Amino acid sequence: MSEKSSSSGSDEDVDPESGQHVELGGVLSKWTNYIHGWQDRWVVLKNNTLSYYKSEDEREYGCRGSLCLSKAVIMPHEFDECRFDISVNDSVWYLRAEDPEHRLQWIESIELHKAESGYGSETSLRRHGSMLSLTSAASALSATSTSSFKKGHRLCEKLAEMETFRDILCRQVDTLQKYFDSCADAVSKDEFHRDKVVEEDEDEFPSTSRTDGEYNHNNNGSKEKLFSPASPKGINGIDFKGEAITFKATTAGILSTLSHCIELMVKREDSWQKRLDKELEKRRRVEDAYKSAMNELKKKSHYGGPDYEEGPNSLINEDEFFDAVEAALDRQDKIEEQSEKARIPRLTPAPPGDVYSSVGSHRFAAKVEDMVQNHMTYSLQDVGGDANWQLVIEEGEMKVYRREVEENGIVLDPLKATHSVKGVTGHEVCHYFWDTSVRMDWETTIENFNVVETLSDNAVIVYQTHKRVWPASQRDVLYLSAIRKILATNENDPDTWLVCNFSVDHDNAAPSNRCVRAKINVAMICQTLVSPPEGDKEISRDNILCKITYVANVNPGGWAPASVLRAVAKREYPKFLKRFTTYVQEKTAGKPILF
Fold first, then answer.
1. What are the tens digits of pLDDT across the range 156-183?
2. What are phi and psi of 346, to 5 degrees?
């Protein structure tokens, strides 16, 4: 599939002021879903975010989706040189560039934005700062403390006691500090006064009126003044002894409470350790379950992505491919059953057969004539004695044959079906098979179609897209459809009606990357057999029988498992033929016979 990529601002620069990269935008093909496949989208890379819009003109309406590239994983595809995938957890974007050079350019730009967004980069440090770490640490510490202590009331009580002892101890320390300061002042004053007394004694005679308590005679004959001891209240009225006792009691209480706390914590350590081990085991199991669930989710979320589409490198195996196709076909059958009830029949009278006898004079006239002659020569040959044809289905009058042919790994099996339908003519069968106005009434595999060009009254060029059957890619077909009446050369032989559809090219319906263009060469060949009526009765529909030969050569245009293609063909062709012939019988019932 081709893809457009025109990057505006593809040479990515760095803004010197902000340190961030400027915007990068362009058109990439994005895998939308298995119904619509690849679609062109306007993709923008800016501020570490990859966003996409339906088109550049619709940017003002908002993006259709975005990915943060901080934890994105960019994976170039192994086989597709233009494709790369971007995944964030279980969200995956599948993108395709116009060529490998553009893919490399996008990948490098995305990786550069991703690197600049990392938490280890300089811009990240400027952006987040250190307060985040401090706040986180404080919150974690607070949460841990609360969760640890709120379960143990005894430990909380002991901690409250520690708070009380701390307050008491602080007050006692202040009191003792005041006492120590007063003692220091008193000692300084005593030393100063003693020195002064000694100096006076050296200058004066001794007095006989002193008491024994005022002076003390030293051995060397000197004397010093004696001071009365401090009162029990101490200096400034502080009861030093009482304070010391209280201080000792407080410290003893603190030590005792600490011992209780340690004892409680030791006792709880085993319980906490057991709980921690249990929590760690639970966490391990949850992580394993999460990983397993994520792997399953990725498989489911990616199931339906481009890697699971048809192709030789598809991640889906043949059994899964077949199951998916069969399930999708079953869903389509149910939808068709419901829609048939509400379908309004259309009246389309068939023109006389003479209109379809001529070849025409359009530019494809010679090609149509060649196709008609080939089908008349080869398609009507009996396959009973040909060993190359294998009978694969036999249901009443219907027989379906197949000849296995492969080319470059692509299944090209020709199919041939024979059937006999009562009550209708070859003209009527071929008319309804060729008439585009009633195509949607009986063809359930078509999503939409239109007539590209009308070449003549009996030849048109038709473009149609078929409903997608995932994981197969959606197919479209451009073909010329011509209806012809071939007159019998022997009067005893019936005339032959034929519709041939074969692929052509047209400028107004070029192949696109949305669908895989299939090639077809299909023919519906009908002959009417009439049995004589009884007596003089007129010929009725009970007397006519249409012998149908349907041949189909289809090139699917892409790879799919051979077993799947053959199984689907075996299932769908008989259903198609029965559905169509039943439709013709219903449309012609009670109407005049058209030979």
1. 777 777 777 777 777 777 777 777 777 7
2. -115, 140
